[in-house]
Amino acid sequence: MRRHRRAKIVATVGPASASPEMLKTLFLAGVDTFRLNFSHGTHEDHAKVHAAIRALEKEVDRPIAILMDLQGPKLRVGTVKDGKIQVAAGEPVRFVLEGGEGDAMSIPLKHPEIYAALSPGDDLLIDDGRVRVRVTGVGQDFIDAKAVVAGTISNRKGVNVPGCVLDISPLTPKDRADLAFGLELGVDWVALSFVQRPGDMIEARGLVGDKAGLVAKIEKPAAFDQIDDIIRLSDAVMVARGDLGVEIPHEQVPGRQKELVRACRKAVKPVIVATQMLDSMVSAPAPTRAEASDVATAIYDGADAVMLSAESASGQYPREAVEMMDRIIRSTEGHKLYRSIVSASSEPGEDVTAPHAVAAAAADLAEAIHAPCIVAFTSSGTTAARIARKRPAVQVLAITPDLAVSRRLCLLWGAHSLWADDVHTYEEMVDMATARSLSEEFARPNDAIVVVAGIPFAQAGTTNNLRVVQIGRG
Question: Distance between CA 176 and CA 387 in Å, rounded?
Fold first, then answer.
């Protein structure tokens, strides 16, 4: 089950992909991590999918990661008269905290944190920005505004507040119930929606602990003000371009994406690029050329993973979407400019500690001696992540005694994850590295492989040993 690419594929599970048969089809087509979107579906639905993925994992004898994505706080207008209101450019509108008849001068908006955060001159976006209004006055229970972009405001449409930090927890009561359920199931990753500040990550960490990896979804412009601290407090990051693309100008999204990918790589944290990557494949068997270029750009940027949303959850061509993404990744990584572009995006002076320097040396050494792979013994996944940050030309065979770690490594660039018994001696390490690189078909007799580990063994974060092992003829 070796993937002939470095970047990973995350696929969202939904009505089009929830059956055990389709889950297996998608895994064989290239999915490394399955995403359970808790904005939709019941706990029973997600439990069935989780059980099917774990059964598939046993069948194929390969770790498979499961990411639960929490809905987060959804800001919405209430119900309006006749179900919708037409708003013309320049027309005044008023939002009210309580009551209201639902006409243009009494649009229900029952979110007091919005009233507390807004000032005259701020914008409110309705229905993913299809309607934009500019605030002219704010009280404790009303917001006066003038329409800037005309359109229709209809019942329960979403509201975005760009440029404002709202005094609101990213974890709603629904999220807390979903999180407890997901952790009990045994998900590998938890994605936290609408992260605004480091405190959001600290709050979530208090609930998640070490039961799962914590993913910060970056979809609020306010997050960029303290992005280094947010990344430091996360285990991975998702560039959630849907809501982010609503709250910042479209032309800024590509640059922000590159910033986030580079910052995560520097911090040794996996980064997922998500939303509308192959969106036309929801209803068509092939993507547009622009969509193919979008996926390729994320790979050239050095993203650890790219994600399918509606394409695999509710689209007509889930298998074809995964196969297409797999082909785009492999083609991009095989292009003659790929190595130079990815190498150029690394930050100078990154290797400031001995563990980082050892990992970087392993990557350079493997390329210099044309080793077929780097074998990384890792108890927490950190050793493999340090090597992956260098984006070496060879894959990383990541061996860990922790099943949970082996699953989380399914998000990490270049990592072929294996769950195996722990090693206790140097000789055991060499023997296992040799045996596994042969059995997984990474190496052949007479090859020289690079082995990286931390000694003493089973102690997290101690990447300090580097060795070249010559494989005998047997």
Answer: 35
CB of 153 within 8 A of CB of 80?
Answer: yes
What Å distances lie between residue 404 and 50, 65, 66, 338, 355, CA to CA? 15, 9, 11, 32, 23
Q: Which two tokens stand for residue 200?
A: 């959001």
Strand partners, 9: 306
Catalytic residue among 24, 54, 76, 211: 76
5 included as an active-site residue:
no
Reply yes or no on whether 275 is catalytic: yes
HSE-up of residue 258 (Cα within 13 Å, Cβ side):
15
- Contacts with 427 (C-beta within 8 Å, 6 or more apart), sequence order: none
Q: What is the pLDDT of residues 417-459, one digit of tens each?
A: 999 988 888 889 999 999 999 999 999 999 999 999 888 776 7
Alpha-carbon span 322 to 41, nearest angstrom: 22
Residues 73-104 have pLDDT tens digits of 999 999 998 899 999 999 999 999 998 777 88
Of 217, 265, 408, 436, which residue is the catalytic one?
217
Of the residues 275, 332, 378, 382, only one is catalytic, namely 275
Q: What stretches in the chain show pLDDT beneath 50?
A: 349
Paired tokens of 467: 């060795």
297 tagged catalytic: no
Domains of the chain are 8-72+169-335 (3.20.20.60), 81-160 (2.40.33.10), 354-470 (3.40.1380.20)
C-beta of residue 26 within 8 angstroms of C-beta of residue 327 = no
Is 76 assigned a catalytic role? yes
Residue 472's pLDDT is 85
How many Cβ atoms sit within 10 Å of the Cβ of residue 311? 31
